[in-house]
Amino acid sequence: MLLYILLLSGGFFLLYIGADWLVTNSASLARSTGIKPVVIGVTIIAFGTSAPEFIVSIAASLQGRGEVVLGNDVGSCIANIGLILGISAFIRPLTTSMRLVKKELPIALGSLLLLLLTAINLRIGRVEGVVLSLGICTFAWYCVKEARADIATFGERLEREYEEYVKPARSKPACLAFILLGLTLLGIGSHLAVKGGVGLAEALHIPSYVIAASLIAVGTSLPELATSVVAAAKGEADISIGNVIGSNIFDVLACIGIPAAIRPIAVDRVVVMRDIPFAIGITIILGLFMITGRRTTRSEGLFLLAIYGVYIYHLTRLMGGAGV
User: What is the domain extent for residue 117?
Assistant: First the structure.
């Protein structure tokens, strides 16, 4: 069992380092070629924080572990709101713009509803996977379009926000080398995380979905946790919430859609009846918090944390081997 814990922990560490190297050096390389910060922000940075979930899901799909794909990504959606935004709001109340409420949040909710629709027959096939994948392509196009429309107004702010990711001191060959190293670490880390998580589940005689929806989901969400907590501490609520909402959209459309297009995913009834509706419900609750007073208070942050605690409690009830 200790070996599986070490594999899981080592996998998380490599995923975190790999994602950081991929994001910082991709952003630096993009800037050195003249790409504007706003485009970097909505593409490279947004993808980078979700890279661990994506790589783990691809690795799990190739190994035929569809339950790990679903557990990782649905669990990440719930953890992103319940755990990450709960902590962020508790650190400092999150005042949000109505743009997030009117545009990005409905897209996140719609993505989860689409996932529920595709999984209702207890199988996400290749066709459904392609549909979800086309959704992330459409969302990426929308992000770039919105970013270009706002660049005149928000260009200077975006320059400050993403300054830490852009390190022009490195040469282009050095950036390329670190990008390749980051991708390599992501690949190795994802393999170790899946192997360690599944092995730990088998050693404890609990469903691997439980490990994926809890430990692996939280572990692969470390970049979002770091980004959102730091942004909340600095008073950048839109970054904190926007990062989580964007990540949830990516987790559903890309991290489930692309693996399903590679290999169809069998869906347990519990996932359709409990987990996906739970993710939809907590997204709606976040929306209500954002609409009322246009802020998420500390008490509401504690409420989100409590909801996440309830979800984890229900997962632990499966540790006897029943269910998923």
Answer: 2-318
CATH code, domain carrying 275: 1.20.1420.30
Count of CB atoms within 10 A of residue 285's CB?
A: 16
Output the furthest CA–CA distance in the chain (Å, rounded): 57
Q: Which residues contact 89 (CB under 8 A, 6 or more apart)?
A: 232, 296, 297, 298, 300, 301, 304
In this prediction, the residues of the chain whose per-residue pLDDT falls under 70 are: 23, 27, 29-48, 146-170, 227, 230-231, 234, 236-239, 293, 318-324
Per-residue burial over 132-164, b = 16 or more CB atoms within 10 Å of its CB, e = otherwise: bbebbeebbeebeeebeeeeeeeeeebeebbee
Residue at 323 is within a domain: no
131-167 pLDDT per residue, tens: 999 998 898 888 777 666 555 454 445 455 555 555 5
Domains identified in the chain, total number: 1
